[in-house]
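Below is a filled-in request sheet from our internal design queue. Each sheet records the structural input a requester submitted and the sequence that came back. We keep these sheets so that new team members can see what a complete request looks like end to end.

REQUESTER: design group, bay 2
PRIORITY: normal
MODE: inverse folding
CHAIN LENGTH: 248
BACKBONE (tokenized):
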């Protein structure tokens, strides 16, 4: 296959391409779990080779509960990626993680259901119980936080990501429950991606982009989609700088 991939990025809502990639190759990977969300784009940031995959497809046609997480993570591993950064749009629950804040969570509570959550559930596969006490890779989180500080990108270190089923947003009561449970952020795509990455032995971390206050947290009656997209657009411009520093 191709040269070593230093980092793979899974882009979420608002991040459908990685700007400024050189020497692009597109790989339509066939996986035992069906097709990934889109072709995997391999390309260079300076002299560093990275992979990029749009989680919802490059035209955002796949909702969170229909993403083929197993195929996506498998495809990146198959192409040789060993470090994967998931970029996820989220709602902010905790007071210091409001719109336009970037955060690197350190815990997860999974509220999703009816998703294919493991590589163990195909006939004949060995049943493995991965350790998931710390769901994100400590090394990749540390490097990401150092890169952010070096690049002058403000990020919040830590927080618990509550993964909900979507595609609808939550009710105020659901967010009260998530807050009571200890969630600081809420998103629809953090799981099972993180667990699948662990099953394949990948280093995986999450860069959460806070697009809106979670239901009932911002005082507004309705969460506005144009506002979500405007907030995401303001944050995704910082991602290439952060990634360049991470690769340096
Ligand atoms: N809830 C769940 N997922 C999200 C949100 C939210 O408020 N905002 C962006 N993704």
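RETURNED SEQUENCE:
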């Amino acid at each position: 296959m191709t040269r070593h991939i230093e980092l793979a990025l899974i882009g979420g809502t608002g991040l459908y391409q990685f700007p400024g990639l050189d020497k692009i190759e597109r790989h339509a990977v066939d996986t035992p779990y069906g097709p990934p969300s889109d072709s995997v784009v391999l390309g260079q940031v300076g002299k560093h080779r990275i992979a990029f995959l749009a989680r919802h497809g490059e035209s955002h046609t796949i909702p969170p509960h229909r993403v083929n997480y197993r195929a996506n993570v498998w495809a990146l591993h198959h192409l040789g990626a060993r470090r994967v950064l998931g970029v996820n749009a989220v709602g902010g629950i905790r007071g210091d993680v409001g719109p336009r804040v970037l955060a690197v969570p350190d815990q997860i509570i999974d509220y999703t259901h009816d998703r294919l959550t493991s590589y163990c559930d195909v006939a004949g596969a060995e049943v493995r119980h991965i350790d998931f006490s710390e769901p994100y890779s400590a090394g990749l989180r540390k490097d990401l936080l150092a890169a952010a500080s070096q690049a002058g990108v403000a990020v919040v270190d830590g927080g618990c990501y509550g993964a909900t089923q979507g595609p609808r947003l939550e009710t105020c009561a659901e967010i009260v429950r998530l807050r009571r449970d200890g969630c600081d952020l809420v998103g629809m795509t953090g799981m099972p991606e993180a667990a699948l990455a662990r099953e394949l032995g990948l280093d995986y971390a999450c860069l959460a982009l806070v697009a809106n206050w979670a239901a009932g947290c911002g005082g507004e009656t309705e969460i506005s989609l144009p506002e979500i997209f405007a907030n995401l657009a303001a944050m995704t411009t910082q991602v290439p700088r952060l990634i360049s520093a991470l690769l340096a």
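SHEET NOTES:
- DSSP finds six helices and eleven strands in the chain.
- The mean pLDDT is 96.
FILED BY: M.R.
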